[in-house]
Amino acid sequence: MVERRESDSRSLLRRLRDTLATPGGGQDRLDHITHLIADSLRAHVCSIYLFRDPETLELCATEGLNREAVHQTRMRLGEGLVGRVARTGVPINTGDAPSEPGFRYMPETGEEIYSSFLGVPIQRVGEKLGVLVVQSREAREFLEDEVYGLEVVAMVLAEMTELGAFTGDQNGIGATHRFPVMFRGTTGQEGAAEGRVWLHEPRVVVTNPVGDDPEAEKVRLEEAVATLQAQIDEMLIGSAAMDKEQRQVLEAYKMLAHSRGWVRRMCEDIALGLSAEAAVEKEQSTARARLEQSTDAYLRERLHDLDDLSNRLLRLLTGQGQDTGADLPETPVLVARNIGPAELLDYGRRLKGVVLEEGSVGSHAAIVARALAIPLVIHAHRITNEALNGDPILVDGDQGIVHLRPEETVAHAFRDKIAMQAEAQKRYADLRTVAAEDRSGQTVRLMMNAGLMADLPSLKSSGADGVGLFRTELQFLIRSRVPRRGELAALYKRVIDAAQGAPVQFRTLDIGSDKVLPYMKPQEEPNPAMGWRAIRVGLDKPGVLRMQLQALIRASEGRELSIMFPFIAAPDEFHTAKAMLLREIDREAALGHRVPCSLRVGAMLETPSLAFAPDSFFAACDFLSIGGNDLKQFFFAADRENERVRRRYDTLDVSFLSFIELIVKRCAENDTALSFCGEDAGRPIEALTFAALGVRTLSMRPASIGPVKHLIRRSDLAALRGVIETARVRGSQSVRHAVTACLACQ
């Protein structure tokens, strides 16, 4: 191989493009391409290895090695020099291949006479497609320009592979994005769904990897980069209302977009014959491969910035936006890196499921998914790179697992699971009109959680006794500005109307921590979950709280009204908030507006401190609702957003249950109504245990009411209480095993 000029590279790329346009089978194209590359680079050998499955590379074409080895020689990912290149995404350049660590001799190829080896990855935006190899008899390392030139050729091969240039006959390689893939993520919302992929941001398809006029391509690139820089600068100007993390992302975008090295490298790729779009993807793929090998967490985090910036630039160059003209499939499962609550609500209940690469169990998207009762899996890393619109997909929200393009045996087993759940729901439907009464005649009230008008039809269909928690913050989270009092009053009125006399407990605005309003100046805090949030915000900034209380009073139109204040940690917070509410009622009455005929004022018990408040606090509360999600994380000092610890502690731990019993006792002594609200209230075994300990009102998602009611009706709460006591006396850390064993014997 000798040093080559830019015109040689452009000539080779044009010949490769012409091969793509020539009629013929996939194998014919592969054979012709290896001949072209070997001839153009004056190499003795050129070989193309492509993936047969995610773990296996296959020699698919060669010029110089034994032809009989084609489609016979295979190696595992990481095996030999070719496998190393595929695994790491980094070229290997050596003048003495047999002495390289991990070298594996393939006798059927006849490669023993070739000493020099240069292998570069065939990859597209982090997606590994194969390896391009050239070899020579003389022992020498290839020049830097030669390595770079071969990487440019590999980029074109990646685009050709993506476009299906090598498919179509028995010996050619199969299409990409065809293998079954399983993603193990985290449960965001329980449930199971089968459907077809709908990408929130469809992949950009580069249809012209080779440029005919380098100067024209450079102009296109420079104009697109200038537009991108202007867009980012404009976003930064309007970033005052963003939180620190969002501003840091934009600052990183600006730094990358204004990087002269980034633009220079893309211009060098164009000079060698790539189109502007292909140059962007080559730089994105090369940088991604380097960053993925880094042990620096900060550098690895910059992968997202690089991908987002490159995709923005590609959309400017190709004109491909999010609206591709494709129709939403009949059973859409949304796949995205992340998504805001308003965007998710736009899709609404049409979605069968949602899969995100990012997100958290307390994110806005998770809150909306729960409100819509849509199965959600988060932390499904790199699924947006693997999935294509229309791909079959299975979402197991219970286990946090996603099957993309599943094998039929997996799909069949999954359908059986969905069918069993559907059959169980039919059985639960028969319980809609009966009470959650155990075998001894004790009754438990089962309420539903809501936050949207779309939730209210579930009140009747689920058999709920009322709405135990209406999350008012969702109406604030999905808007770009603070809602007006009239808008809120109209919404709350529709909620009360839809309940048709069933009780509705409105929780005032619970923002802060993981719920940051897009139009509110963010507060930088070391521990937001224990910081300025919920009632603390309401009391320090009373304008919004007063406006919300006025809207609730007007919405009642003289009917009963129940309001509870979130995250009360000290009695004074409750007394101050209640006094504010009473003043607003007096004010509304003075204005001639109708006020509630009956007012119930309560608090969310989410901090352990409140359980030890004086009796006067309990007496002043008409009701208390245990906020199980927050209370559990504070009780065990285990952040529920931290996947390492949030599942570490069992809800049925004896110490936690003893604390729940203390709360039950305090409420009973002061005649204060008590309920339990949170994810655990909707889990049948946990719900049954709480009921046995004396919590006789539970609030949960509508889909959980049937299973919980079914279990309560076939159980004896008094007998179960005895089982719990026995387990405690024996010194068990958790009563889960004892409760489960008791239920199995019924």
Automatic annotation (TrEMBL):
<dbReference type="InterPro" id="IPR050499">
    <property type="entry name" value="PEP-utilizing_PTS_enzyme"/>
</dbReference>
<dbReference type="GO" id="GO:0009401">
    <property type="term" value="P:phosphoenolpyruvate-dependent sugar phosphotransferase system"/>
</dbReference>
<dbReference type="InterPro" id="IPR029016">
    <property type="entry name" value="GAF-like_dom_sf"/>
</dbReference>
<dbReference type="Pfam" id="PF05524">
    <property type="entry name" value="PEP-utilisers_N"/>
</dbReference>
<dbReference type="Pfam" id="PF02896">
    <property type="entry name" value="PEP-utilizers_C"/>
</dbReference>
<keyword id="KW-0813">Transport</keyword>
<comment type="similarity">
    <text>Belongs to the PEP-utilizing enzyme family.</text>
</comment>
<keyword id="KW-0598">Phosphotransferase system</keyword>
<dbReference type="InterPro" id="IPR006318">
    <property type="entry name" value="PTS_EI-like"/>
</dbReference>
<keyword id="KW-0479">Metal-binding</keyword>
<dbReference type="GO" id="GO:0005737">
    <property type="term" value="C:cytoplasm"/>
</dbReference>
<dbReference type="GO" id="GO:0046872">
    <property type="term" value="F:metal ion binding"/>
</dbReference>
<dbReference type="InterPro" id="IPR003018">
    <property type="entry name" value="GAF"/>
</dbReference>
<dbReference type="InterPro" id="IPR000121">
    <property type="entry name" value="PEP_util_C"/>
</dbReference>
<protein>
    <recommendedName>
        <fullName>phosphoenolpyruvate--protein phosphotransferase</fullName>
        <ecNumber>2.7.3.9</ecNumber>
    </recommendedName>
</protein>
<keyword id="KW-0418">Kinase</keyword>
<dbReference type="GO" id="GO:0016301">
    <property type="term" value="F:kinase activity"/>
</dbReference>
<dbReference type="Pfam" id="PF00391">
    <property type="entry name" value="PEP-utilizers"/>
</dbReference>
<dbReference type="Pfam" id="PF13185">
    <property type="entry name" value="GAF_2"/>
</dbReference>
<keyword id="KW-0460">Magnesium</keyword>
<dbReference type="InterPro" id="IPR036618">
    <property type="entry name" value="PtsI_HPr-bd_sf"/>
</dbReference>
<dbReference type="InterPro" id="IPR008279">
    <property type="entry name" value="PEP-util_enz_mobile_dom"/>
</dbReference>
<feature type="domain" description="GAF">
    <location>
        <begin position="25"/>
        <end position="171"/>
    </location>
</feature>
<dbReference type="InterPro" id="IPR036637">
    <property type="entry name" value="Phosphohistidine_dom_sf"/>
</dbReference>
<keyword id="KW-0963">Cytoplasm</keyword>
<dbReference type="InterPro" id="IPR015813">
    <property type="entry name" value="Pyrv/PenolPyrv_kinase-like_dom"/>
</dbReference>
<keyword id="KW-0808">Transferase</keyword>
<dbReference type="InterPro" id="IPR008731">
    <property type="entry name" value="PTS_EIN"/>
</dbReference>
<dbReference type="GO" id="GO:0008965">
    <property type="term" value="F:phosphoenolpyruvate-protein phosphotransferase activity"/>
</dbReference>
<keyword id="KW-0762">Sugar transport</keyword>
<dbReference type="InterPro" id="IPR040442">
    <property type="entry name" value="Pyrv_kinase-like_dom_sf"/>
</dbReference>
